[in-house]
Predict the structure.
Amino acid sequence: MSVGIVSYGSYIPRYRIKVEDIARVWGEDAETLKAGLMVSEKSVPDLDEDAATIAVESARAAIENGNIDPVRIGAVYTGSESHPYAVKPTSTIVAEAISATPVMTAADFEFACKAGSATVQSCMGLTSSGMIDLGMGIGADVSQGAPGDALEYTAASGGVAFIMGDNESEPIALIEDTYSFTTDTPDFWRREGSEFPQHGGRFTGEPGYFKHVIGASKGLMEKMGTGPEDYDYAVFHQPNGKFPTRVSKELGFSRDKIEPGMVITKLGNIYSGSCMMGIAATLDQAKPGDRIFATAFGSGAGADAFSIKVTDKMEQFQKYSPKVWDQLKDPVYVDYAKYAKHKGKLKRS
Amino acid sequence: MSVVRFWRNQVNRYNLEGTHCNSCDEYFYPPRSMCPTCRREGELESHRFEGKGEIVTYTIIHSAAEGFENQSPYPLAIVKLDEGASLTSPIVADPEEMYIGMRVKPVFRKLGESGDKGMIYYGTKFAPDKND
Ligand SMILES: [Zn+2]
């Protein structure tokens, strides 16, 4: 396969809240939470940001980083669990804002935290079949945790856009192969019209995350005849820091291989873009020839595994594109009151 | 604002599409259908602004209009784009960060919405450009 990532871009809002500030409000012990979740702070959107504005900013970054002519983009797919409209696509807003309209297709995707990786797979299919020249897959969310719920410590905001293509000389990283593992598992959900999601508590780990991530990861390595030793880096979906740490160990990837992509500690879980952001942070420092193993997970439930190989086009790309870890530096911290206002939890009467 | 009126100018708001007069070399945003200097002799073409510019003057809005209450206080400024045109825009910055001459870049934000059930209006605001 010569299909791969031609460019990528990411966007992280500049506000953060520390775990301490949330824990204080609910009378919980911050140190225990930080050690348990392996998260110290999370991103908070500005008052005028939503999944659509975040998708646009990451899409524009991908266009600029790769110096891509937007007219070449034949599909824009946005994965999110916080699309601003129940009916009216986010992807048309993105497509118009990057001037890719009107000769193109667009649609919104939804699959909890793996909606973003699903858009990437769709773009792989459309470009490698020759239906379109380039395709853009985005994961963007302003995710919500109910006040006081465990998810409130990690539910964060951010977006990542990948531009996929199948023209031999173009990709900065090839997707060698992909493999998905999907079942109907009620580990996490949100009904139409309800503000905050529900989850199956302890149920979410074993039959959700671990079963699917391991199923897809082992499936891909068996299919390709590869093992953890063949990869320089690994990225696994990060609902917290603990899950990817444990799953990488179970699969045989050493700690140093997942470190570059572990953005969860400073960013929180950005849902649809979580695994893609980990891949982006890893690509930021990868060298030509490096191989990256990545598995995204979405509740409901399913996992998409990817085997990625960096090409020599990467060196040139890295010279001009901002790095994910740099975007995590110098945030503006907000306290719980300001955070609640930003997330619309606090409203004027 | 009506949905139709917003939509008609949407592309201008999303991507800072304005006009340039080829006769007198002046730039306009929002776009004009006639050059005020050259009138009939004017030769207008559409122009996409780079979006970089600087703050000419600003004020801090404390009591915002309906639909913006949650955003106040916020800075509202006259931004002079590098090509020459000036426009009024909210600035995505804390009031303490503001100063005249500050370099700014365009960002894509929610401009407002018609209540909980109506349309959401998106477009360009400006933010401090730290790399400039
Ligand atoms: Zn003129």
About this structure: The longest helix of chain A spans residues 205-224. Chain A is about 35% helix and 25% strand. The longest strand of chain A covers residues 173-182. The mean pLDDT of chain A is 94.
